[in-house]
Specification:
Helices cover about 80% and strands about 0% of the residues. With about 80 residues, it is mainly α. This is MtN3 and saliva related transmembrane protein.
């Protein structure tokens, strides 16, 4: 298998993995089962992958992880909005 295709497929699958969770949170307006620490660590790690992608000039790494950062920041925003004080 071509390594670029493999990278794109892997990137797409990992990038969309949190979309069902985001949809569930938006529908239910409930973030009780979401870990803030997990979200912060994940966003940090994904952001570092984006940086790495820029350093290596690897578009599949940049695009897939940048998309994942956006999805997880959206989840973080929902967490801030829907959390119970």
């Amino acid at each position: 298998m071509n390594e670029n295709i493999l990278g794109i497929v892997a990137g797409v699958l990992t990038s969309i993995s949190m979309i069902p969770q985001l949809i569930k949170v938006i529908k239910e307006k409930n973030v009780d089962d979401i870990s803030l620490v997990m979200l912060l660590v994940l966003i940090t790690g994904l952001s570092l992958w984006v940086w790495y992608g820029f350093m290596k000039d690897e578009l599949p790494i940049i695009l897939s992880n940048a998309f994942a950062v956006l999805v997880n920041i959206s989840l973080l925003i929902c967490y801030m909005i829907y959390r119970k004080s």
